[in-house]
Amino acid sequence: MELTQRIMKAIDTAPVVDCHEHIPPERERLAREWDIFSLLFLAYIDADLLSAGASQATVDRVIQGDESVSEKWRIIKAPWSRARRTGYGRTIEIALDRFFGEKDFARGGAERADERLREWNTPGVYTRVLRDACGIRTSINQRIDGLEPGEEHLFTLSIKTVGRGAIDRREVEAEEARAGKRLSTLDDFLAHIRSVVKTAHANGAVALKTAAWHLGQPDPGAPEIASYLFGLDEHPPQKGPPLTQAEAAYTRVMRAAPGYATLEDHRLLCNVYMHYLAELAGELGMTVAVHCGPGWRSWIDYRLFRVEHIMPLLRAHPDTRFDIYHAGLPWPRELAMTLKLCPNAWVDLTWAHIIAPEMTVSFLDELLDMLPSNKVIGFGGDVHFAPEIAYGHLVIARENIARALARRVERGRLNEEDAVDMARAFLYDNPVQAYQLNNVGA
């Protein structure tokens, strides 16, 4: 424990590159009415509250309702008492203490914190949290549109691609409305995507966001399914099926009622689109960020995003950089083996620290037996309107990293000085390399 504390202290003020956020412009946060529950319960804890016995109606009232803070506490107190010890719950308690001066919501804590929120939620709140409290030099922030003037000191843009790499009629129609034109053919759609991504890149975007899609029946363990999705398992690997086949599939998907396109057509389009995005990213020198593993809300079938799905994609684009998110939970060992064989990819612990803290500590220790230390990215907050939760996440991330490295020091696999250097690299040097952030000063 003493060793862990020393490593934590050594990295407590180390610079950080935050590799994944969804934070909207500050003006949007300031324009909304918040209470302490609608803000701090916005990210992830809803799933744990449901598992702790709260109804969906109760969770919705607490996060979205207009009841008083006292009434919200009354109806959520029991489920919260069971959910507060999870990783998600702990981030909330850390943020509640650090920014609002309360250890708990009980005994008037919720009401007092709510009063402090009204004083706290003022212009500059993002800077006070991300720069001053967290020591984050930049946050790679996922947006559909670009950054607004004045945000560059906080954020680096990652462009959210249509469907995160999957084509669906509703997604295309939404993009048509945004673009103000029809995307009648697959060529139209891909040309539009190229224009959007190139414009974002010219405006400073360093990455584009996709996901480790599986569009078949929920049995993604069969390797032939993923091979079919992303390209046949040949050498050299294929980069997707012929565009003529996919063009016909695009036409059928756009004519079918939403939700009624065939599975085969979805597979075909996803195959072509993902390879197109990977090739475009390589051409522009951008990084492909890949959601891999967990679902972000209750009832999502996380098996859609299994690690093995991305292996053919990584192999087919050896000159493109890939950042694989969330440690691939719950398949971290499969991810470690995948990346051991694919030097163009990094393993990113974004979100993993609070989904499964102990699993992440154990995995990081094992991972360093398999991968060079420069292939590990240590942190991403992965929040929306509440960077305060990202602060709580970063506290846990530093703790987890220190614990994993202390284990290795105790076994004689590292000395303490190397452990500190390695932790600093996880939090700063490695993401700078993965995203080519040459303009971010340490």
Q: Describe it for me?
A:
- The protein has 2 domains: 35-120; 125-435, Alpha-Beta Barrel (TIM Barrel).
- The two termini are 29 Å apart.
- Strands 1-2-3-4-5-6-7-8 form an 8-stranded parallel beta sheet, with helices on both faces.
- Helix 9 runs parallel beside helix 19.
- The longest helix is centred in the last third of the chain and has 24 residues, at 387-410.
- It has helices at residues 2-11, 26-31, 36-40, 45-51, 56-64, 69-83, 87-100, 109-120, 125-133, 169-179, 186-202, 223-230, 243-255, 263-284, 311-316, 332-340, 352-355, 357-370, 387-410, 416-435; strands at residues 16-21, 136-143, 155-160, 207-211, 287-291, 321-324, 345-348, 376-377.
- The radius of gyration is 22 Å and the shape is globular.
- It is 53% helix and 9% strand.
- The chain is an alpha/beta fold.
- Helix 16 links the parallel strand 6 and strand 7 (345-348).
- Mean pLDDT is 91; it is low at 215-226 and 228-235.
- It is built from 20 helices and 8 strands.
